[in-house]
Each structure stands twice: as C-alpha cells, then as structure tokens.
Write a structure and sequence with these properties.
Structural class: alpha/beta
CATH topology: TIM Barrel
Distance between the termini: 19 Å
Radius of gyration: 19 Å
Shape: globular
Number of domains: 1
Number of helices: 14
CATH superfamily: Glycoside hydrolase/deacetylase
Length: 307
C-alpha cells in the first residue's frame, strides 16, 4: 500500500509541478479574479500539514472564503459573490478532523461545511468502505467518524456549519423513492435536533445523482445539493447540482494547488483513462489482485480520481 501510494504521489507531484510551471495555474487564478464564479473545494480527511498549506495558499493569493449561508444566497441569485470566492466543505465527518482541520479553521477564521452521514455518527462510527467484513468491525476501540458529542461540540463553532450526507452514506440512485425520502428527511431531522441549527445543505454520497433528489430536497427545505463534478459554480449553476473540486487526503501540495484552481482534472484525466485500459487486461488484473488487497487499491484509486 505504502509503495503504491509513494509511486502515485511521486508521479502526480512531478506532473503538478510541470503544470504549474506551464502557467496553467496562474492563468486559472487570473480567470477567477476576473469572474464572479465561486471556487468550490472539498476534502475528506486531509492531514493537518496539507490542509494548513492549502489555507495559507488561498489566503496569500487573495481568495475570499464564503460560508454555506453565503453560497445559498449566491446560487439563488440574492447575493453577488466576491472576487475569488471559495467555499470549503468536508464529506463524511471523519474523526481526525478534530485535530487536523478544526484548529486550523478556527485559527484562520475560515468558514467550512461538514457533510455528515447521521446514522454513522449515531452508530458505531465505522465507514463501511474502510473495513472488511471481519472481526475488525466488532472492536469497540475503532471509530472512523466523529462521535455524536464531538459533532455537537464542533457545530457550536462559528466557523463550522453542518449539512446532510444521508443517514447511512447511501448512494441515492440506488435507493427506492421511499428509501430516498427516508435518507434525506431523517438525516436532516437528526442533524437539526443535535446541532440546534437549520440544515439546508446536502452532499450526494460519491457524487452520484439521478434527478429524483432535486424535488425531494426542495420539498424538505434543502437549498443546495453538492456533487463531485469538478467545475466552478457560475450564476447559471443549478443549486441542487453544485460542482466541487476534490483535494485528496495525503496528496503532494503542488497537486493540491492544481486541484484547487481547477486545472488538475484536465491534466490527469488522460492518464486515468490509460490506467483504466491497462487494468482491464485480465492478466494485469489478476496480478494486481495478487500484489495488493482490493480495499487498499480502491483507497489509492479514490485519492486519484477524487471521490
């Protein structure tokens, strides 16, 4: 796992440095300055060093941090965004955010939105995609997500707002209409009860959406829905299909810069397509399964494609 991640980061750092040297990042910054678009950036569980560097870089380069409340007013046409507006969010509610993110956002007074799967928070705190179906899941000392008490505490900070990420991190296109209503309604009800605040924001787990969600979200009082499409938020963007740029958890800082400015996906996508073609070769697929566990491979893959 470490060898694969090391190789992946070495390749991506070199590619990112070349991209920065080519002037693409500088040109993207210029476009952000001369437009009224919002730069939406999301993380999952970044290490403190990387996240601090990202915040310092954004502040140094003149980005204006906006809250979820500001964004709601902007996407519904009731407010004009400041130049280089940037909105930060975090999916899943990882427990490590308590030490890697919360102190940083409070120190720099940066507003952020935490998208929380309420059932995981209230339950055993395990992220299913991180655990095999084995005895590991029965250990009481393992917890990936915030506890309910910790969520209540951080939700009181002025810099932090809370949004829904369904009850059980369910991929909404896979749900029946009844299940979809439950996941969106129950998560909103629970989060509002715990935090004492209105919950008006929603993020689609793994970014997948099939169109049914919009009507349900609007009827329940949600004002926006966030996807994982890598793009800027413009005045014509559907409030329930907001794009976001992903910054991986433990990626090199030059790659993070490319991600935050929106130039990374056009650069990395040809390599992703090539890798998918290689992985489709049966012999290489078998070899990969022999060399690395599937869960570990998927972890590295999610870091690369931003999901």
């Amino acid at each position: 796992m470490r060898v694969i991640m090391l190789f992946r980061n070495l390749f991506c750092e070199c590619l990112a440095l070349i991209t920065i040297a080519s002037g693409r990042v500088r040109r993207a910054q210029g476009r952000a300055l001369n437009s009224l678009n919002v730069t939406p950036i999301y993380f999952h569980n970044p290490n403190k060093r990387l996240f601090t560097k990202c915040i310092r870089w954004l502040k140094t380069h003149g980005y204006a941090f906006i809250s979820a409340e500001d964004l709601i007013e902007i996407v519904h046409g009731r407010q004009t965004p400041p130049k280089r507006a940037v909105w930060l969010s975090f999916d899943d509610g990882a427990r490590d955010l308590l030490t890697s993110v919360v102190p940083v956002v409070r120190r720099y007074r940066v507003p952020v939105t935490l998208f929380i799967p309420s059932g995981i928070i209230a339950g055993d705190g395990l992220f299913p995609w991180l655990h095999d179906n084995g005895s590991e899941q029965t250990r009481s000392d393992i917890r990936d997500a915030l506890t309910l008490l910790e969520l209540k505490q951080v939700a009181q900070y002025q810099e932090i707002s809370v949004g829904s990420h369904t009850v059980s991190h369910s991929v909404t296109p896979n749900l029946t209409d009844e299940q979809l209503l439950f996941e969106l309604e129950e998560s909103k009800r629970a989060l509002e009860l715990w935090t004492g605040r209105d919950v008006r924001c929603f993020a689609y787990p793994v970014g997948q959406v099939d169109g049914r969600e919009r009507t349900v979200l609007a009827s329940l009082g949600y004002s926006l829905g966030a996807t994982t499409e890598a793009s800027f938020i413009a005045h014509s963007t559907d409030p329930y299909l907001l794009p976001r740029f992903c910054v991986g958890d433990n990626i090199p800082f030059p790659e993070a810069i490319c991600c935050m400015t929106g130039v990374w996906r056009p650069v990395i996508n040809p390599f992703i397509r090539l890798f998918r073609c290689i992985c489709a070769i049966p012999v290489l697929t078998s070899l990969r399964g022999y060399l690395v566990r599937e869960r570990e491979f998927q972890s590295v893959w999610r870091t690369t494609i931003g999901n």
